[in-house]
Amino acid sequence: MDSHFEDPERPVWRDPRAVALLLAASLIIMANATISPALPGLEILFADDANAHLLVRLLVPAPSLAVVLAAPLAGIAADRFGRRPMMIAGLVLFVLSGPAGLFLPDLMWIFASRLVLGVAVAMIMTAQTALVGDYFSGRRRSALMGLQVSARNFGGMAFITLAGMLAALSPRLPFAIYALAIIYLPFVWMTVRDVPARAANAAAGEGAAVAVPVAPWVGPIIALAGLQMLTAMIFFLNPTQIPFFAAALGYDSASATGAYLGVLMLSGGCTALLYSRIKARLGDAGGYATGFAVMALGFALLPQGADFWLLLAGAALIGAGYAVVTPIFIAIALQLAPAHRRGLAGGIMATTMFLGQFASPFASIPAIAAAGFDLVFYGTATSLAGMAGLAAVATMRRRVLPGPCAASQ
Fold this sequence. Notes:
This protein is mainly α. The chain has one domain (12-408): MFS general substrate transporter like domains (Growth Hormone, Chain: A), CATH 1.20.1250.20. Helix content is 78%, strand content 0%. The protein is built from 17 helices and no strands. The protein has helices spanning 16-33, 39-45, 52-59, 62-81, 83-97, 107-135, 138-169, 184-191, 197-203, 214-235, 237-248, 253-272, 275-301, 308-336, 342-371, 373-400, 404-408. The longest helix has 32 residues, at 138-169. It is globular.
């Protein structure tokens, strides 16, 4: 059997290519949220900077801005020049830029290094998304989607918990965690290979690559990406605002944030392991309805955070709900895009996801200043409940009026 084709009898987690893609997936969550526990300490460390209040809060979503700008270009380049060189170059750039906050002299330089880190993430993410579609299909692809979200969450839990401990010693120390990516390089170098176009099409059950009109697949992907952007914008309230919410409640911000985000990631990682079963039972619309409803309940619990266990319960629910909806976005995008445009499709999805992350503090900071944390969290819960309701209506309509869309579920 050609090595480019998948073995349907082999568990996906035993495929070295899948392991390499899962390692790459863990870097995506590392890029942004890892330094969250250090934010209050960095604000104190750079208190003489007149813009510290804003710049410190932008350090977490700064890579997102770079991804927004770089991901479409990275996707086009991955389609044209190959996924492997894009992945390797992105990993090298990640290792060089990530730890720079350990020694850079001021917030502006640290902010700049975070932008470079975002370019690295764009390169890794677009190549990784395309390779998932190139290597796997059907239930194995769904299984890998769930494992991918689990890798991000379990990796994020480990990174953020470690960052919480390091931030208690020095707000600069969490930047050292990014150097761990150098361990991934040799395995990715040996494992990841580009797939010839015909093999990629065969793995996906498609015919040979042909010229596909832009409108039939780009339009739906852009609409899908818009929903993903809104979801990411909501979810990113967690790493950007929970450190300050915890401090406002009187908790030690670094340790409380580390615990909160650790629970968030643990819950998401465990839930994502069930994604292939959830998809088989509920379909895409049903998965959206369930995930958004669970997230809504989680955000509704946050204003009760004076009881730390309720705060952690909210984190667990938000993490679980987000883990249900996250893989659905990429799964649908890979279904829509032709094999030879998967890099571009991945770039579009990455751009809108990270645009939502970057926009999150710009929307949440003035909203919290005007209305307070509690009202913002309740409003977020209400919005998510509305999104869940719309998805539930779509699920019921597809059951009553089955058609091609329903069949694809």
